[in-house]
Write a structure and sequence with these properties.
Elements: H1 2-20, H2 22-26, H3 44-48, E1 56-57, E2 63-64, E3 73-76, E4 81-85, E5 90-94, E6 98-102, E7 105-115, E8 121-122, E9 129-136, E10 142-151, H4 159-163, E11 172-174, E12 193-199, E13 207-214, E14 218-220, H5 222-231, E15 248-249
Parallel strand pairs: 1-8, 2-15, 10-13, 10-14
Antiparallel strand pairs: 3-6, 4-5, 4-11, 5-7, 6-7, 7-9, 9-10, 12-13, 12-15
The structure holds zinc ion.
Zinc ion is lined by residues 113, 115, 132, 201.
Amino acid sequence: MKVYRCFYLLAPIYLSLPSVHPAETHWSYRGNHGPTHWGEFGSNLCAEGTQQSPINVEMKQVRPLKGHDSDLKISYRVAPLDLVNNGHTIQANVMGGGTVSFKGNEYRLMQFHFHTPSEHQINHRSYPMEMHWVNQDQEGHLLVLGVMLKEGEKNQALSQFWRQLPVHQGTEIALDPAAAPDLGTLLPAASHHLFYKGSLTTPPCTEDVQWVLFEQPIELSKAQIHKFRQLFPENHRPPQRVNEREVDED
Ligand SMILES: [Zn+2]
């Protein structure tokens, strides 16, 4: 009787799973499950949202950020990192990596990850890679920092990290704490920033995400870029319509 009742209760839950989480499991960057089809997996915003990311930023249409100074303050530091190959990118989950404050809100760094080529473009120029730093405030609002990566010198701060990239999907590696970079040093030293309201660049394409793009790129060597592309040859969403949105600069 007990067994029977359990089955009766659980069956509908199992049956409903595929329709609850389709976006998590079925999307990709190519073919029938690629970006132009994301709206078909129950993520309507991916197809019909009006504040989607990434975008191409036309610099001549950018306006100065209102107020006296930029309200942006980034305080990142050394922290333990768990590197995950989630099948879409390499993501570093961060605990206690620091905060970003912007317009009176404080956001905690949750994770950072990589795309190739870059998702955002500036005057239609794309970069070999882009790094996204995902930060969340206490109410769950997201602020994402976007940093462009160009080909140049070997990135020493990332070299230990790069040596331990998890090759197989679903694997997670705790980075040796002695090898963990000071996250603050991974950001461009001096840079103007571009601010706009957008979305997640992966399903479910949730909107109301505050984007902060660094105009100044950081460098990665050709070999470092190649190593990432051996795992993920192409994992970017193309630019979306800007519509009525304004992009501000500090
Ligand atoms: Zn991203």
